Automatic annotation (TrEMBL):
InterPro entries: QdtA_cupin_dom (IPR008894), RmlC-like_jellyroll (IPR014710), RmlC_Cupin_sf (IPR011051). CDD domains: cupin_QdtA-like. It holds the Pfam family FdtA. It comes from the Bacteria. It comes from Herbaspirillum hiltneri N3. Residues 4-118 form the Sugar 3,4-ketoisomerase QdtA cupin domain. This is WxcM domain-containing protein.
Length: 122
């Protein structure tokens, strides 16, 4: 069982395709949404936050998310658009992108560089 919160989003499959629903799925209001792509083989992130919460979804491909909350370290593979990883402010995280991967990020706060913590846990 994962130490970090991995949500299985409601997904409806049928012959015409699949539909995944985000409505009321997150424990915070989404203020900022962005996606990262074209990062094949790259590792991004490498920080934690003072107050921002995030939800990560691999819309396409495979993304390895390394998480460390100062107690537990775990690597979580996101490879299905029906899975959503919650990243709490205390969670140091890096994201390593597989070929053709697209990562959707939803944040609880607007971008503020001053609330990033760039020092990892020892």
């Amino acid at each position: 069982m994962a130490h970090f919160s991995l949500l299985n989003l409601p997904t409806f499959n049928e012959p015409r395709g699949s539909l995944t629903v985000m409505e009321d799925a997150l424990p915070f209001k989404v203020v900022r949404t962005y996606w990262i792509y074209g990062a094949d083989g790259q590792t991004r992130g490498g920080h934690r936050h003072t107050h921002t919460r995030q939800a990560l979804i691999a819309i396409n491909g495979n993304i390895s998310i390394f998480m460390n909350d100062g107690i537990t370290r775990e690597t979580i593979e996101l490879n299905h658009p029906g899975q959503c990883l919650l990243v709490e402010p205390k969670d140091w995280h890096t994201m390593t992108f597989g070929p053709g991967s697209i990562l959707l990020v939803m944040s609880s706060h607007s971008y503020d560089r001053s609330e990033y913590i760039d020092t990892p846990y020892e």
